[in-house]
Predict the structure of DUF418 domain-containing protein.
Amino acid sequence: MDGTPAAPARNLLIDTLRAFALIGVYMVHMFEQYEIYWAAPNQNLTHTIFTTFFMGKAFSLLTLCFGLSFFLLMNRADRRGTNFAGRFAWRMVVLALIGLVHSLIYRGDILMVLAPLGLLLIPFYRVNTKVILTVAAVLLAQPLLAFQILSAASGAAWANAAPHHWGDTGPAFYRDAALGPMLTWNVWQGQSFKWWFFIETGRLFQILALFLIGLSLGRAGVFDAPERFVRQRRRALIALIVIALLARFGQAPLAALLPDATAAPMARKLLGNLMGGWFDASVMGVYVLLIVEAYQGVGRKLLERLAPMGRMTLTFYVLQSLIWVPVFYGFGLGAWKWLPQGTALLLGLGFLVAQGVVATLWFKRFHYGPLEWVWRAGTYGTVRVPFRR
């Protein structure tokens, strides 16, 4: 063991970005009633707002922060003269175990996806940044998905087959399922549908790409000294806005060039997956750059109030599910039947304020959130990790 691990110094900007990721993911979950909404979605204004501006973007930010955190951990160990690669691999095992328990209640748990994919970051730590960004660009380009689109357009049966995740019965099942059957279903069927979704929509490759971009941003010190990157940041902002607009409004003209659903059932839908992923990633980038701009300006003091939430991302992510899944699901209060979506979102906002207050008070007495401490203690194999201040 590398000695008793001390509590690291905090970068409040990075903690603020983590907080925004947590807030966005949580509000999407509230909008979705923790997935039950998709049993009978309502194409109203709320649906349009959340699917356009939040869904996929908050998750993308979470994955970007994951890659950034990988660099910070590895770099911190490097400066101590230790190799953290093996420890990081074990850290992913611990995270997967936390996710395994969490996924019994909420099968949409993302920890069990991030943890195994996080292992793929290890060999990239010492790779040249240009190579890393090239790999990230290829992953974002989604060559396999592009090949499937062309194959579907040419009439290939395999490319036009209905995706496995379309058969997901989870949202309807959760409406009335008792606790025991739900737990059993989540062990296998729930997880398999989730993984098929990530594979078949190309999101798995997007996660890896954002991991690598987060690693590169950490290596460049973009969030350690943001004042050094003002010009690059503003150029990137313009570029990402253009990409987002092209991905959003260019989809329909491109889809018109492909055969319709009668001739090629999946061609246009696969194109939607491809360009939807580009839209999500580019809009997320716009959000990050705007947050950094505000943080470097008059908004710093206000934004830093969110930083304590960012330090408890894991704890709050799991806690939110433990509280709200029993509220919405059939084995609990069954609120999907009687709680209006707008009211649920207002309750969600109130719950976020409460989390912000709790986090601020918590860190006056403790170094880590409860699950953050468990994760760190498990990583180092010791309970001597400092907890109380």
About this structure: Residues 12-380 form one domain. Residues 114 and 315 are 16 Å apart (CA to CA). The chain has one domain: 12-380.
